[in-house]
Each structure stands twice: as structure tokens, then as C-alpha cells.
Amino acid sequence: MDSRHSDLLVVLKRAARAVKAQDYENLSVISNQVVHNASVFQDNHAVHTAIVLYAIGKVAARCKDKCLPINIELDKAIRAVEQGKHSQYEKELRHIMQVLRKTDNKVNMYTQEALDQARVKKGYKFHTHGLSVARTAKLVGVSQWELQGYLGKTVQEEPTKRDRLAIARKLFTQRR
Fold this sequence. Notes:
By secondary structure, this protein is mainly α. The chain has helices at about 5-20, 25-40, 45-65, 70-80, 85-100, 105-130, 135-140, 145-155, 160-175.
């Protein structure tokens, strides 16, 4: 098993623990960590994993007990990665998305919106890691138009004066 897949396995196990503990906010953090690996390696498994984890966090927070089958599906995905069955892993991710869509009629509409938002938001994260808009849109499965719309609305935080001063001090102390 190469390092990408061992990293993916670690992330999936952390996500499964978070789901079992109903710590859905942590799934967003885990998803963002996956984005870094996905942007470096441009690995489709990591891209899909980031999107699915983000969507689980958003949808499961609303449906609580009805999302219980997600634990089972995550365990199946973990086993597929452990066994090196990549096509089975992708199948399990798609199945998780289906489970999320079928949780509840009220949640179904929210789920689709959450999945769409997950793709666009994760696309933004990939773009901030240096990928082009075209490549990012292709990786996450959205149009460049949708991604550009989100990128245009998103404002990155400016570093504070204290942060800029710390960077300047660090630069000048390294030259000695």
C-alpha cells in the first residue's frame, strides 16, 4: 500500500470515529486535511473522499439517527482500501452518497444542496492550494462557471499586523 492510500485509510478511520461519536463538525476539518493530499497528488480517491466527508458532516448533523447506515458504509469503504480494491472503494463512496440522499424526504432536498455545496467549497480549497480553475472544476465535478462564482464571492482573510510583523522578524533573524 503506497503512502497516499495509507493516508486515506487513516483519514477514513478518523472519519468513522467522528461519525460514531456524532462529532460532525470534525468531519469538515478532516475533509480539509484530505484536500491538501488531493491537491498535491491530484488523486480522484482523495477528491471524492473530501467531498463525501464534508457532505456527511452537513447532512448527518440534521438527520442524526437516520444516518446510522453511514457507519456501516464507511466501514465497508475502509475494508476496500485495506484490501486495495479501489473500484470497490469508489462504489462504496457512491453508495454513501445514495444513503445520504435517501435519509428523509425533507433532508433529501437539503442533501442535494449540501452535495453541490461540498463540491464547490472543496473546489475552492483545491484552488487555494494552487490548482487552476479548469483542473479544479474537472476534479470536483462542477462547471468552471459554478466554481468562478464561488471564488468571486469568497474573500481570504488578510494577515493581521501582528502576523506580518512576525513574518518580517522571522525573515530578518534567518539572515544572521
